[in-house]
Amino acid sequence: MSRRFSFQVTATDGRARLGAISTPRGEIRTPAFMPVGTAATVKAMLPESVRATGADILLGNTYHLMLRPTAERIARLGGLHRFMNWERPILTDSGGFQVMSLADLRKLTEEGVTFRSHIDGSRHHLSPERSMEIQRLLGSDIVMAFDECPALPATEADVAKSMRLSMRWAQRSRDAFGDRPGHALFGIMQGGVTRELREESAAALRAIGFDGYAIGGLAVGEGQEAMFGVLDYAPGYLPEDRPRYLMGVGKPDDIVGAVERGVDMMDCVLPSRSGRTGQAWTRRGQVNIKNARHMDDPRPLDEDCTCPACRNYSRAYLHHVFRAQEIIASMLLTWHNLHYYQQLMQGLRDAIAEGRLAGFVAGFHAARAAGDIEPV
Ligand SMILES: [Zn+2]
């Protein structure tokens, strides 16, 4: 296995790319969907179950782990991989996005951010240097630069000012990260929905030089049309020989549209969070297992799905355990959702490899249009 971090594009179909990221902890097939393990667990799932769905990499959250149980404690216990029993690659976010969403609980300066913990109100500090230190203590394979993402609605002047701060922080992140063979540092493009700002941000990141490039500041409430509008040009500003990571996306149709536009990696809490609220994502759309219509239904959630929830249990059973607030409801629905997401990624990868992505995408939309989508 390679001791270095590298990325290879092996096929393209339109703007979509098939590839693989090699890391000392294993290969990441791209386009990749990364399940989110916020507090060192993908909620309701064992790590081996997450792997069984087809996930090559997990995401961990710097903000949550620095507060509890702390990065220093995780480092003393052998690092995040050993701590959570996941030996494959882990990407950690920088903490920036979550700290920024604390709104009035934080104070932002050129140097960094001081904030109060949502758990106990204690004071903490994050800066590019501290974020790099925390992600090193966790043992993250893919480290994200520390950035700021302005809350919407924001004026274009606010977005520009914030983006330029993030670019200065990107340089400080690069300097603090240093030379760590086998580990990668990704820069994060900002600039909202303004093309000139996206172009300026990409140029600044390219000048610094990163192992991969994220597109940040999307999926924050701008809507799918505006997001796809940015994705029609933004990936083209980034180096072709590095992975492109769209942060915090998304619903299945967001993922398909992003892959069509040249995105290689994505993450979202949606499949696991939905599993805990009774929402199942399927090829034919969304199923709300809470609905009374499932009470006597002996069919599985999705007849075509090979996950344990669909192989062994009826909609009637899933409805019952959800209504009875049994823990197995979250376990089964989360497993199904993560399985569906990874099957979707495999379908996209196969289609790109065989040069039939347009047909795959048409089939994806047709199955949903013909299905029984239940409003949330
Ligand atoms: Zn299933």
Automatic annotation (TrEMBL):
Q: What is its EC number?
A: 2.4.2.29
Q: What Gene Ontology cellular component terms go with this record?
A: cytosol
Q: Please explain the role this protein plays, according to its UniProt record.
A: Catalyzes the base-exchange of a guanine (G) residue with the queuine precursor 7-aminomethyl-7-deazaguanine (PreQ1) at position 34 (anticodon wobble position) in tRNAs with GU(N) anticodons (tRNA-Asp, -Asn, -His and -Tyr). Catalysis occurs through a double-displacement mechanism. The nucleophile active site attacks the C1' of nucleotide 34 to detach the guanine base from the RNA, forming a covalent enzyme-RNA intermediate. The proton acceptor active site deprotonates the incoming PreQ1, allowing a nucleophilic attack on the C1' of the ribose to form the product.
Q: Which gene encodes it?
A: tgt
Q: What is this protein called?
A: Queuine tRNA-ribosyltransferase
Recall the GO molecular function terms of this protein's record.
metal ion binding; tRNA-guanosine(34) queuine transglycosylase activity
What the record says about family reads: Belongs to the queuine tRNA-ribosyltransferase family.
Q: Required cofactors, per record?
A: Zn(2+)
Q: Which UniProt keywords apply?
A: Glycosyltransferase, Metal-binding, Queuosine biosynthesis, Transferase, tRNA processing, Zinc
- Recorded catalytic activity of this chain's protein: 7-aminomethyl-7-carbaguanine + guanosine(34) in tRNA = 7-aminomethyl-7-carbaguanosine(34) in tRNA + guanine
Identify the HAMAP family for this entry: Q_tRNA_Tgt
| Top-level taxon in the UniProt lineage | Bacteria
Where does this protein hold Zn(2+)? C305, C307, C310, H336
Q: Where does substrate bind?
A: D93, S94, G95, G96, F97, D147, Q190, G217
Q: Which residue ranges does the record annotate as region RNA binding? A: 248-254
As to how many cofactors bind and how, the note says: Binds 1 zinc ion per subunit.
